């Protein structure tokens, strides 16, 4: 007998996301030189995942702590985590914190933060239009579509000719944006381009956002990854708060704590006045209650413990810097090899870009050669994860780039 779902036209296999498809192909590929530059996760120089030693220490302590239990957390999440996470991005003496104009809601990673923000805005905000950078992290558009936004619009961001931010295009598009819409901004280390506006450009962006009455949602998935400096990576968000904007920040702790599968995130809410915080929190809690009811404990506890202990915090900071520095070294090494091997192009952009990703400038056809012929897995838009490069595979990757460019 046929299933009742067999005649429902909507119930069909959807397209695999490009990253999930790459992950599957990498796993199945038996080629000895295969290289995974597709996954958005840190790897050691041995090409392995890294459990941060500071995280491990706290996990061992937690396992031995007989006072811990598995009781439900509050709907809004672990209080110590929410406070510590918000202080990490804004600085603990930020006026928004001191004046109680801030709330943190624990969410399922950065994705959960973006989704909760979208759900809240859809229900409680005058606009169901969102602006995202072109290009942006693949999930931004789909999250907002699934939250019921009627229009997902793009503002220009990447100048493919000059391999940098198309600032004039960005300004022009935001100046024409629908008043009152939401705009997603990458707080640091833009994914996928690795190119951020300068502070002077950010101040102009803030002017436009203010003039057009747009609502900024900062996506902050890489604090610490841009250059190993947590404060520097928070400066854009702090600048907007200082300018008096009301905003949300979707913080992810997947990358900077290496806690990818623990789903640790904080949706940080900053308002002009403290009186609206209880209402906003309540509406967020209603949404959270119907989506995941209450949050999970383990990862949030690890983060809260490390952020709340000055000695642990210093150790963790050094480990974040270790990751950021290895990525920087790989940038330099790849750049040197591209130059030594006289691969066409200046490749300066590889050094100028920051964070985990590089937008190589390879075309979709060239990227396809990388994947199909050389088993170097990367996105077709030319994005590579610099952390997937190692001292052992960089020559192979550069030779593959040379071949891909010469064949197209
Ligand atoms: N936002 C951006 C810009 C990202 O690059 C990522 C991860 O790749 C996320 C959000 C998702 O983070 P999480 O894994 O914590 O959900």
TrEMBL record:
Pfam families: Aminotran_1_2 (PF00155). SUPFAM superfamilies: PLP-dependent transferases (SSF53383). InterPro entries: Aminotransferase_I/II_large, Asp_trans, NHTrfase_class1_PyrdxlP-BS, PyrdxlP-dep_Trfase, PyrdxlP-dep_Trfase_major, PyrdxlP-dep_Trfase_small. PROSITE patterns: AA_TRANSFER_CLASS_1 (PS00105). Its EC number is 2.6.1.1. Keywords: Aminotransferase, Pyridoxal phosphate, Transferase. Its cofactor is pyridoxal 5'-phosphate. It is an enzyme of class 2 (transferase). GO terms for molecular function: L-aspartate:2-oxoglutarate aminotransferase activity; pyridoxal phosphate binding. GO terms for biological process: aspartate biosynthetic process. Homodimer. PANTHER family: ASPARTATE AMINOTRANSFERASE (PTHR11879), GLUTAMATE OXALOACETATE TRANSAMINASE 1, ISOFORM B (PTHR11879:SF55). Belongs to the class-I pyridoxal-phosphate-dependent aminotransferase family. In eukaryotes there are cytoplasmic, mitochondrial and chloroplastic isozymes. This is Aspartate aminotransferase. It comes from Littorina saxatilis.
